[in-house]
């Protein structure tokens, strides 16, 4: 694993933005796996800035987002759809038809998950997957469990995740309790993986990912078996290393 520790969140955003755009410069028709949450916001800001400077063109890029809450309107201010458009898609030139999300409001969620996997495969697989990490070691919404869940699936969110994410909602009761998420297998099939972790709250999970046992109790620990993982950490997230 390539572990990079930075002094400031701003520096991580710049480095991660270059990393993502570097992939697109190398391969204009790249397939990007994208995440929501606070960790990638500055990376998206820098990707927008490189686009506005004319340094990178996203017109041939395809994206797949990691996960989505169930039964939350796409227009809701807390939907991952709204997040991605506000923080990235509204500001760069990825064609609308190349943007993919799991539909957490699908009638048949199992079928939706299966067709998402088929779409990723048809697009040629993910070239680079951007990830945040939960304080409990989750990646996407693959929560700590007894076994790794391989492909996209429906998940009941853990109490700790609901609590962590309640900071975006009016109250903890408003946080959806279910989500649809790409699986561990879907993530592991990405050719390259970039994880951003900020703050001491993530330190324990990061330590486990880097030198702990590989266990579904810390889903991100599986990344030890991936051949191309880069972690961009601030000093807080790196504090137990
Ligand atoms: C979001 C996602 C989650 C977050 C994780 C960290 O699409 O898949 O796994 O990456 O919960 O969230 P932040 O970045 O808000 O700390």
Order of helices and strands: EHEHEEHEHEEHEHEHE
**Low-confidence regions:** none
What molecules are bound to this protein? fructose -6-phosphate
Summarize model confidence as the mean pLDDT.
96
Please tally the helical runs, counting DSSP H or I stretches of 4 or more residues.
Answer: 7
Number of DSSP E strands: 10
Strand order of the largest sheet: 1-10-9-6-2-3-5
N→C terminal distance: 13 Å
Helix/strand structural class: alpha/beta
Query: What's the overall geometry?
Result: globular
Helix content: 25-40%
What is the rounded Rg? Answer: 17 Å
**Strand count, sense and closure of the main sheet?**
7 strands, parallel
Into which percentage range does the β-strand content fall?
Answer: 15-25%
Describe this protein's structure.
- Helix content is 30%, strand content 17%.
- It has 241 residues and is an alpha/beta fold.
- The longest helix has 18 residues, at 9-26.
- The chain starts with a strand and ends in a 7-residue tail after the last strand.
- The mean pLDDT is 96.
- It binds fructose -6-phosphate.
């Amino acid at each position: 694993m390539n572990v990079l520790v930075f002094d400031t969140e701003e520096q991580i955003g710049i480095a991660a933005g270059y990393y993502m755009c570097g992939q697109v410069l190398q391969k204009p028709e790249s397939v990007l796996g994208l995440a929501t949450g606070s960790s990638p916001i500055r990376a998206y800001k820098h990707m927008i800035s490189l686009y506005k400077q004319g340094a990178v063109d996203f017109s041939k890029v395809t994206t797949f987002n990691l996960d989505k809450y169930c039964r939350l309107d796409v227009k809701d201010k807390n939907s991952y759809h709204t997040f991605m458009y506000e923080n990235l898609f509204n500001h760069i030139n990825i064609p609308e038809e190349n943007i993919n999300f799991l539909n957490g409001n699908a009638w048949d969620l199992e079928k939706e998950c299966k067709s998402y996997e088929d779409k990723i495969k048809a697009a040629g697989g993910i070239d680079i997957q951007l990830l945040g990490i939960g304080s409990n070691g989750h990646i996407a919404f693959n929560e700590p469990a007894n076994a790794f869940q391989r492909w996209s699936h429906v998940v009941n969110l853990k109490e700790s995740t609901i609590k962590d994410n309640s900071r975006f909602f009016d109250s903890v009761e408003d946080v959806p309790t279910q989500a649809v998420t790409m699986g561990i297998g879907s993530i592991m099939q990405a050719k390259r993986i970039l994880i951003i972790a900020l703050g001491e709250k993530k330190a324990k999970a990061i330590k486990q990912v880097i030198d702990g046992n590989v266990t579904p109790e810390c889903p991100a620990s599986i990344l030890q078996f991936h051949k191309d993982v880069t972690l961009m950490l601030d000093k807080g997230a790196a504090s137990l290393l």
